[in-house]
Amino acid sequence: MLELYHAEPGANSMKPMICLKEKRLDFLSHYVDLLAFEQHAPEFVAINPNGQVPVLIHDGAVITESTVINEYLDEVFPQTSLRPADPVARANMRIWSKFVDEYFCPALSMIGWHVRIRQTAKSIDKERFEKLLERIPLEEQRQKWATIGGDSFTEEQLADSRRRLVVSAWRMENLLLAGPWLAGETYSLADLNTYSMAVALPRLMPESVSPEKTPRLLDWLARMNARPAVKAALAMTRRDPKTGKRLDIPVTAS
Amino acid sequence: MLELYHAEPGANSMKPMICLKEKRLDFLSHYVDLLAFEQHAPEFVAINPNGQVPVLIHDGAVITESTVINEYLDEVFPQTSLRPADPVARANMRIWSKFVDEYFCPALSMIGWHVRIRQTAKSIDKERFEKLLERIPLEEQRQKWATIGGDSFTEEQLADSRRRLVVSAWRMENLLLAGPWLAGETYSLADLNTYSMAVALPRLMPESVSPEKTPRLLDWLARMNARPAVKAALAMTRRDPKTGKRLDIPVTAS
């Protein structure tokens, strides 16, 4: 049996959600409400000691890290193969996915935390917030929450993240010169690992991501948006897109 | 034909060096002298636009990123398989290698730069140093060199890196509770991707890495030191271990 612990269809949670949908695999969806700090609750930390989503459970085995989860899924369920057969293209898929993990995603995450998560942190009373901080298992995550609950990131840090987003967009555009997909000729994990990061770019940085400046990126995004697996993953939201409030609608497996 | 551009047998350069030796593959060794800034020379940037080692060239295809290079080598040359056959153990191998890349290595790197590379940066005259900075392709690398050539990292940053090294050692010890190797029962890329980072720990942090506190880590290190492939990679040094000066001895392929 497959189970996925995930948050909203965005950021790292969305990567295995798209992958599972591409492969038409049934799975049990466990929604973890990040804004209610469920990822740091003892029940969840017992599953992933890092207190982070997503987590895949396959017949009892716990797999963490969204990029690793997706390679695992492709290895164990080879139907609808999502890794290029050519080893060089496969290496390019991994190089790009690594870039997304180490560079693109952290930059986007800082902006997202500053703009959105900050409101949540600020709305919690100080005493409760201190208690919530205490149970965060990773020091780095605790520092991040403390920063966002305090004065937030500096203008310099935010500007550097915005610069990195421009670099990320430019690198995507450059890769798409060589082929229709990020690892070349074949749609692959490189693409689905990037979707949830890239989807916000046209809105976040219209001066850098536009039909004039990044036509290939936008064309790629349109092709990604049209994929039934992407649509199905996006439909697994539990929040009202307008109010951001949690909707208590049970979402079925697939 | 296989060619490897690499620096000394340490840090990320050493990862594919051990891998190639484990697989007994012949390769042409191209030594890139990092302290002479050869990694930023136009000839090298033409090969890897990021100006970083190691780089593998296989029949003309350029593969970067040491962790990706090693998976590529294991895929293309399956003799002496270095990835566990069990997909869960293989996922654990990737999760640990990712941790080394994103957490352990950057922490060690900051300490290494502060302690060793700083001397080199300080020994260069200011005008030449500015010129060298200009040709560094990655903004992040340029910032790092500017930092090390200036006031270096702050005490707070260095203390945080030392804390991360303790976390890394503790995580290794914890993994080695579950099996003799970092991904479980089988020697794998998880081990050889970690060796060059872990080898300095007993000397760097005797208070945290010791027979009393980390017996499993030290036992693992002794088993790694005894491997012929590790010895062969270590023998590929081009610097006098005492003076640090470059020795112009041509090193043969294998």
Any chance you could write out the topology, listing elements then pairs?
The structure is a homodimer.
Chain A lengths: L1 E5 L4 H12 L5 E4 L10 H4 L9 E4 L2 E4 L1 H11 L10 H37 L2 H9 L4 H11 L5 H24 L10 H4 L2 H4 L2 H4 L10 H11 L2 H7 L20
Parallel strand pairs in A: 1-2
Antiparallel strand pairs in A: 1-3, 3-4
Describe the structure.
The structure is a homodimer of 254-residue chains. Chain A is an alpha+beta fold. Helices cover 54% and strands 7% of the residues of chain A. Chain A is built from twelve helices and four strands. Chain A has helices at residues 11-22, 42-45, 66-76, 87-123, 126-134, 139-149, 155-178, 189-192, 195-198, 201-204, 215-225, 228-234; strands at residues 2-6, 28-31, 55-58, 61-64. In chain A, strands 2-1-3-4 form a four-stranded mixed beta sheet, with helices on one face. In chain A, helix 1 (11-22) packs parallel to helix 3 (66-76), helix 4 (87-123) packs antiparallel against helix 7 and helix 7 (155-178) crosses helix 11 (215-225). In chain A, 38% of the residues are buried. The model of chain A has no long low-confidence stretch (mean pLDDT 94). The A-B interface holds A 58, 61, 63-65, 67-69, 71-72, 75-76, 87-88, 90-91, 94-95, 98, 101-102, 139, 163, 167 and B 58, 61, 63-65, 67-69, 71-72, 75-76, 87-88, 90-91, 94-95, 98, 101-102, 139, 163, 167.
Q: Helix tally of chain A?
A: 12
Radius of gyration of chain A, CA atoms, in whole angstroms: 18 Å
Class from helix and strand fractions of chain A: alpha+beta
Q: How much of the residues of chain A is beta strand, in percent? A: 5-15%
Largest sheet of chain A: 4 strands, mixed
Inertia-based shape of chain A: globular
Helix/strand order of chain A: EHEHEEHHHHHHHHHH
* Number of E strands of chain A: 4
Largest interface, Cβ cutoff 8 Å: A-B, 24 and 24 residues
Low-confidence stretches of chain A: none
Strand order of the largest sheet of chain A: 2-1-3-4
Relative helix content of chain A: 40-55%
Distance between the termini of chain A: 13 Å
Oligomer: homodimer
Average pLDDT number of chain A: 94
